[in-house]
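FAQ: What does a multi-protein file look like?

Like this. Sequence, then tokens, then the next protein.
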Amino acid sequence: MYAVIVTGGKQYKVAEGEYLKIEKLEVATGEAVTFDRVLLVGNGDDVTIGAPVVEGAKVTAEVVEQGRHDKVRIIKFRRRKHSMKRQGHRQWYTEVKITGIQA
């Protein structure tokens, strides 16, 4: 069984037992999270598509870790102007383990 959920402005295809890194959620490690915005639920050939969400469907997950991704380096370079700017960014994430899909 799988589902497509929306969180942090992005869509993710998830299955039970899967680990997923999503945008940071203000939830402590070890707590449960419920995703109510489920766009699609599939079980073999039986697929339910929402308009825009599937009524009564939800995906539960457990927060495994809070952390930061690898550094992304940004360089702004202006040719012939003797100008260059370097910048770095590390995005926060929440790693969750999908524990159940209910449709």
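And here is the next protein:
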Amino acid sequence: MATLSCSSSSLNSQHQAFLRLPRVPSSTCSLLNGPKRNGKPVIFCCKNTVPDSRTSVQVKGESLTKRRELLLQAGSVAFSLSAFTSIALAENDVPEDFQVYSDDVNKFKIMIPHDWQIGAGEGDGVRSLIAFYPQEASNSNVSIVITSLGADFTRLESFGKVDAFAENLVSGLDRSWQRPAGVKAKLIDSKASKGLYYIEYTLQNPGESLRHLFSVLGIANNGIYNRLYTLTGQFVDEEAEKYGAKVQKAVSSFRLI
């Protein structure tokens, strides 16, 4: 099976589909069902103008709300935890319709469908983005946002335990209690395994399809500073049969190296 490699230079232009990563405001940001440019998804940030009246829990002198916002700035994700099985990235374990994408600069590997496109976002010195998505117009994709962290963020527990963090994350996205009702967010499951957080939840804007989101979060050091990896896989109900299993397999294969 082929292995794709990413260096410090731009991605192979044959696979590159340019996705803009705008500057993130100091408010919640998520990968939702956004606009498309030339049939390709544009990943964008959504400013949340509705204050969250819920009580914040203090962690090491900082509120979970602030820490939740930092992770939301890195992008939101979703995935069925039952599919988070251990998948080795040895070539003989890669399905015929997948290939290994290896990023030797950012130190991660992931299996992606062999016919999916690869796009790089505009970095701002704090965040960088790599996205994988079908060639045809679709609401399904997998993306990885890498965010520089402060010195006090040394491990995922700095954001709180996985269950508390997941509850805080999803409750911060939910606006179903508004009148008129806004986006409905529902936490399905969460767990921690081998230094990573796994979160499964759904999002649904009024009048739109249910979106299934799967998140994997991890922290690694590049020799200079700590970085947060936020992997997001998502698909909508009507694309579940076509892309659901592919998104799940890609997300479950993610490894820091």
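Q: Is there any per-entry metadata?
A: Some entries carry free-text notes. For the entry above: Confidence is low (pLDDT under 50) at residues 5-37, 40-68, 73-90.
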